[in-house]
Amino acid sequence: MTPRSGTATTFETQRAALADVVAIPVTPFAEDGRVDQDAHRALLRRLLDGGIRTLTPNGNTGEFYALTPEERRLVTELTVDEAGDRDAVILVGVGHDVPTAIASARHARELGAQMVMVHQPVHPYVSQGGWVDYHRAIASAVPELGVVPYIRNAQLGGARLAELADDCPNVIGVKYAVPDAARFAAFARDAGLERFVWVAGLAEPYAPSYFSAGATGFTSGLVNVAPAVSMNMIEALRSGDYPGAMKVWEQIRRFEELRAANGSANNVTVVKEALASLGLCRRDVRPPSRHLPEDERAEVAAIAAGWSI
């Protein structure tokens, strides 16, 4: 794993890592329900061997909210350890209440991770000023780490992100996951287009439209199944080959439609089903996710089998 080489003012290594395929690894479970550490390591090695250099343990595709605090620490430890001396950057997902998020961020720092991604606050009442306060508390606790807010709130204004970064210069990138490319374009410009690294947080389906508005990286759960497919898309987008990127988009369209159906109810389930069909891990997910019905299992397996993996 690349040591922290960004400075408090530039974070060059971290910024470069965000302008890439930002992989969100799954968390495989064993038959007894615990984290399957061997399968997890094997899946991480497969991503790294496939050219992926930015890993996000404890992301939503990793079932962050279904993991215990001890399991979240374990997943972080496994990821940092498996990355080892490879040219990889670890972006650890943190969240929940402020003390829990700070403890997770400090744990990540102790292990040698270079960045944290702050999950969207899970609270029925989120004021814009309170959003700034929440992120300021976490970012201020780990000034050595790059901090990446995960934004799903369409009501949040770009000026609030700029306010946060004025206080916390380690807020260097944004995972923007509002499904509205025009809103993203406006938000990024209100916050400062050149000030942050913009990551299309809704993965490959939104990457072409978000790149056209200023994103330079995208998150991916699909990458667990087919790293080469995600790499093909980032390479096309980097070169400005939007027709090429859309060919990849067409290739993955049905897979991502299945993940997005019914309010993304099966977002993780579809990925794990594809991995199970390839013999890479069990299909098990935790509530409130659930297994696919048989007909959709067969469709997912057929899609995965058709990719060059």
TrEMBL record:
SUPFAM superfamilies: Aldolase
Origin: domain of life: Bacteria
Record Pfam families: DHDPS
Keywords tagged on the record: Lyase
Database matches in CDD domains: DHDPS-like
Family from the record: Belongs to the DapA family.
Name of this protein: Dihydrodipicolinate synthase family protein
Species: Streptomyces shaanxiensis
